[in-house]
Design a protein that fits this description.
Elements lengths: L2 E6 L2 H12 L6 E7 L14 E7 L11 H25 L12 H32 L18 E3 L9 H15 L4 E7 L5 E7 L3 H4 L4 H15 L8 E5 L2 H23 L3 E2 L5 H11 L5 E6 L6 E6 L2
Parallel strand pairs: 6-7
Antiparallel strand pairs: 1-3, 2-3, 4-5, 5-6, 8-10, 9-10
Helix pairs in contact: 4-6, 7-8
């Protein structure tokens, strides 16, 4: 039995190649996969073709079967010789000189008309394009400059003048004890505004531990200090703590975030929900977007997952 091997990118291509080379149908051969190909890395590197083995079936003995392989090269050589002879004959024949056909005026007119129409269309498109672009693109509203929140004027109190029973004095004593228990060596400066609210500024070398992730530790210390200050007192005294100017930096970050999310709401026409924030940070977002036309803000959810939602009013 005669066996032949063929290779191609896929098994189907290898089988088709073999049938064409042998001049037989699929019913006349047995196909066996010798090597399974692989695509390699990204189909480019290290790929291997599929290799198959075709065996001619033993039906009735065909006297031409043994000569099949030998006759192929001869047939190919004959075909090449015939092609070469035909090429030589064509070269030997003198080529008739082709005179360029003169175009009649009637033939030129339609082409000229088409060209003129095409040029007019192009000019019209060029003239109308800027107007169409202006019509499609709405005029961009000028972005208002978002200013930082107005801060009250704080009057600092020297440590020797602090009244131990005053809100500032109570806050100072509580913070001194708390930071000592935390193992943080700091100095604490206290002050008050015109309404009597307390402001504390913590200074030292290891302040990162007092800020925490997104100011969570600083907010917790501020909340505890506020509870201590307002315990057993009539009315409410707001306590604000800061360190390493973190509050101002965070405020600037939140204002830029508010501006970016407002632009998204205006561009998409959909409401935009921000991440959960504490009341102080939500107040910064509301304040910042009061100066932006076309959007409104409100808060949704319950603490600690309460967050700001920006809505397109247009």
């Amino acid at each position: 039995m005669k066996q032949y091997e063929f290779s191609a990118r896929t098994q189907d291509e290898a089988v088709e190649l073999g049938l064409q080379e042998l001049g037989v149908s699929i019913a006349d051969v047995d196909v066996q996969v010798v090597e399974e190909g692989s695509k390699g890395l990204f189909g480019l590197f290290g790929s291997r073709p599929v290799k198959i083995r075709m065996t001619l079936k033993d039906t009735e003995e065909d006297p031409l079967a043994d000569l099949l392989e030998d006759n192929k090269p001869a047939k190919k050589a004959e075909k090449k010789a015939e092609k070469a002879e035909k090429k030589a004959e064509k070269k030997a024949e003198p080529k008739a000189e082709k005179k360029p056909e003169e175009k009649k005026p009637e033939d030129k007119k339609p082409e000229e008309k088409k060209q003129a129409k095409a040029e007019k269309k192009a000019e019209k498109k060029a003239e109308s394009a800027p107007e169409a672009e202006k019509a499609e693109k709405p005029a961009k509203a000028e972005k208002p400059e978002i200013k930082p929140m107005e801060k009250p004027e704080v009057t600092m109190i020297p440590a020797e003048e602090l009244d131990a029973d005053s809100p500032a004095g109570i806050a100072h004593a509580f913070l001194a004890e708390l930071t000592k228990l935390m193992g943080v060596d700091v100095t604490i400066d206290m002050g008050t505004d015109a309404e009597g609210n307390v402001y504390g500024y913590i200074n030292g070398d290891t302040l990162g531990i007092l800020i925490g992730r997104r100011g969570e530790t600083l907010d917790a210390v501020q909340y505890l200090t506020s509870l201590k200050v307002n315990r057993g007192r009539e009315g409410y005294t707001r306590v604000t703590l800061d360190t390493e100017n973190y509050r101002a930096k965070r405020e600037d970050t939140l204002i830029r975030l508010a501006n970016r999310m407002a632009n998204r709401a205006l561009r998409t026409g959909r409401k935009v929900s921000l991440e959960p924030m504490n009341p102080y940070e939500r107040r910064i977002i509301h304040y910042a977007l009061q100066q932006t036309d076309g959007v409104s803000t409100h808060s949704e959810g319950d603490e600690p997952n309460r967050h700001v939602v920006i809505t397109n009013k247009k």
